[in-house]
Amino acid sequence: MSESKKKDDKAAPKTGVAVTLQDNGDRIVLDPKAGGGFNVGLGLAVVGLGAAAGTGGGLFGEQFQHSYLAAYMWALSIFVGAVWWVTLQHLFGSRASLVMRRIAEILAQGVAVMAVLSLPILVPIFTGNDALYPWADHEYLHSNHVLHAKAGYFGTGFFAARMVIYFLGWFLLAKYWLAKSLQQDKTTGDVAFYKKLQGKAAPAMIFFALSVTFCAMDLLMTLDPIWFSTIFGVYYFATCVETFHCVLALTMMWLQSTGHIKKSVTVEHYHDVGKMMFAYVCFWSYVGFSQFMLIWYANIPEETHWFHMRLVGGWKESTLFLAATHFVIPFFGMMSRSMKRNLGPLKFWAVYMLAVCWLDMYWLVAPNLHSEGGVPGVTDLLAWVGMIGVVIATIVFNLRSKSLVAQGDPRFKRSLTFQNI
Amino acid sequence: MTDQDAQISAPLHGILAEYDTPTAVVKASKKVRDAGYTRWDTYTPFPIHGIEKAMGIRMTILPWFVMAFALIGLTVAILLQWGTNAVDYPWIVSGKPFWSWPANVPIIFELTVLYSAFATLAGMLALNNLPLPAHPLDLKERFRRVTDDKFFLLIEARDPKFDEARVRSLLEDTAPVVLDEVREDRTSSDKLPRALIYVGIVAGVASLVPFALFAQARTQKMEHGRRHLVWDMDFTPSYKAQADNPLYEDKRAMRKPPEGTVARGLLNDDDQLHLGKNAQGNWATTLPASMSADEATMKLGQAQFGIYCTPCHGFAGEGNGMVHKRASALGQGWVPPTNLHEQRIRTMAAGEIYNTITNGIRNMPGYGAQMDDSERWAVVLYLRALQKSRTVGASQLSDAERSQLK
After folding, report:
1. Which residues face B183 on adjacent strands?
2. What is the DSSP string of B257-326?
């Protein structure tokens, strides 16, 4: 074993990580030549976000703030979804997914970048600028009895503390899973090691559930501070899971097309990812409709005005379009087994779902600014393109210099030979 | 012939190979698949991943079956809710439209899933030829271990390529633990079990009982009152409108509307229309703004005047209606109704006349309850026309009207 390690070290001299997987000869460290995606991503990010700020009235202009929030929450969902998924695999003691776990752990590191990129949204809150959140203006908060009662929750200090808890929590959790996983690479066959991680995954999952719920509420639901929906956190969570799985599939396909992990990740693993992509289309639809139906049926004005705004005028068509593209089309399109076992259709649907998940974020945010109706405008699209660049750059950057498979897990070989039904 | 004899001489069902390990049965399957046999199967205690590929089994058609039933369930749910709530018995639930699709979605979802589930279970059983009460393999003693730790492969005699010698040699090459023949079942009874028949009869009869009860309820008179199957629905704890509610001080179940509540149509905020008073509080001298002095109003006024005013005031408004004539004839003391053409009434403000019609004066009752505001104003308009008819000179008439005088 040590001879082959010496041979491979010349490709990855810094980290001493084996470049080739013993079991099947796969390349498991990112080829520096494939790292060009980082520059592409960075370019898109700078140009996209810069141009969006330009067309959107500056960094704190109303249009930019709204477009940025929609794109930001879309990007955040990918990385937060990764944190969730890694925690889940540890919690379930899952074996089949081990081949993919390192990729997800790497994806989860992106929460650090998202923490920094939250500043354009958070700074206006701390300076009392209500371009995005009406409650940032404290006079507005006390203008109305309902808001006055909620004022404590919107206090700058409490809000800042919550943001710190969410992002620090996710950051530490992502770092912990990756560090432990890399440590596990060096200790092969230790069952007690992964059992301990399984134990830690339980409280981690509780923290995750609370943090994703309240982060979604804080950043998206409070756009309309009077409105509330107790299932809102779950609704955003559905998007997190969906976008993560799409990005996981696309990342693995890209890695394989550039010569990495070609034999380790098989059609069986893609089948699993495809199944989850389909399942969460159903889950998103179920949660989204429940949110709508309960509010519609109770017919309480305090709750209905949020939906009313999205069901009259120009927004009615947009809502129907979202339901058609986010539920009806993917429900039938992603149902078949063959869609998940052929990379062409899988790639298409992964890109498609990423696009409609962004549209969902737009639908959540934009009616606040354009009450008569709307389709995504230039600023919205530029902000999204910018965030796509951020996602690409972050992923490619984090993929560097580490093993792409969690081979230290004693159950790893079962994952290599995993067969789906 | 005894059972045993019958069994020994029964036709061949197939050749059975027994194995100790899953690997062996999978390997054997590949050989049998490649040899081109179609009527054969493997029997294992647990599902073996990859054996379907080794056996050459193709994807089942069950999903299409399920999809078809899912769509049927969806359609049934929509039609059921539309038919009952919008067509057969339209009634308002929670202020929603008769056919409200958001409220229908849970049932639509449920029936889609339910029909899918039924199709999946029934379809799976049917495609597997289940339930299968008897199979020749049940007679093989060694086959009992298929639920434990042995793996079997059977090639049936009805396979088109079946040739006993060739099949035996093929299977022998796969190194089975035991190679055996299976004969058709000639010992088990092929009659339906008695118990099943009895249960079927009893269940069938029992299932008719509810229908008999329905028929009885629909055709016969009953002494007892309605049966209450759901007590909480029939005897709700809510307080009934005319009954007591001890929770309130005034003990009423029906509550008064809040102070200042006005019923629709009774706001009466136009003082001129409702009271005959103008903005300064004096009697109005013109028709209210909401009314127009046109043919229709005049005709309305003439009709109402004819109904309510002429009994006392007469058709010409001179005060000599039938009531006056009868009352005068009685000679018991009678104040004649006012002649509406006298100076006093001609110069009286329209609003004051309106007020008199509404509330009455001296012996005249008020007609506010019999005519609404605009009708009383129409009467005022007609009255003015009557008064004008006495005072207008011949010179003011048109030629056509003057020729009528002669």
Report:
1. B12
2. PPTT---TT-----HHHHHSB-TTSSBP-S--TT---SHHHHHHHHHHIIIIIHHHH-TTSSS--HHHHH
Task: Enter the pTM of the model.
Answer: 0.75
Interface touch B102/A419, C-beta < 8 Å: no
Tell me whether residues A297 and B94 touch, CB distance under 8 A. yes
Question: Parallel, antiparallel, or unpaired for β B12-19 and B178-183?
Answer: antiparallel
Task: Check: CB of residue A239 under 8 Å from CB of residue A77.
Answer: yes
Is B387 within a domain? yes
**Contacts with B50 (C-beta within 8 Å, 6 or more apart), sequence order:** A419, B26
Q: Structurally, how many domains does chain B consist of?
A: 2
In angstroms, rounded to a whole number, what is the distance separating the alpha carbons of residues B349 and B20?
118
Give the closest-approach CA distance of A323 to chain B in angstroms: 13
Look up the ipTM and state it: 0.84
B173, part of any domain: yes
Asked if residue B254 is part of any domain, the answer here is: no
Q: Are A121 and A65 in contact (CB under 8 A)?
A: yes
The answer to whether B105 contacts A289, with C-beta atoms less than 8 Å apart, is: yes
Reduced to 3 states (helix: H, G, I; strand: E, B; else coil), residue B9 is coil
Distance CA B310, CA B323 (A): 9
Would you say residue B400 lies in a domain? no
Sheet-wide strand order for B151-156: B40-43, B151-156, B12-19, B178-183
Contacts of B59 in chain A (CB under 8 A): 337
How many residues make up chain A in this entry?
Answer: 421
Q: Which residue has the tokens 């929609």?
A: A70
A73-116 per-position pLDDT tens digit: 999 999 999 999 999 999 999 999 999 999 999 999 999 999 99
From B108's Cα to the closest Cα of chain A, the distance in A is 13
- The partner residue sitting opposite B95, judged by closest CB among A292, A299, A337, is A299
Q: Are residues B182 and B275 in the same domain?
A: no
Q: What is the pLDDT of residues B171-201, one digit of tens each?
A: 999 999 999 999 999 888 878 889 999 999 9
Dist CA A321 CA A307 (whole Å): 15
DSSP B2: -
Q: Give the residue numbers in B contacting A (CB under 8 Å), as ranges.
A: 49-50, 59, 94-96, 102-103, 105-106
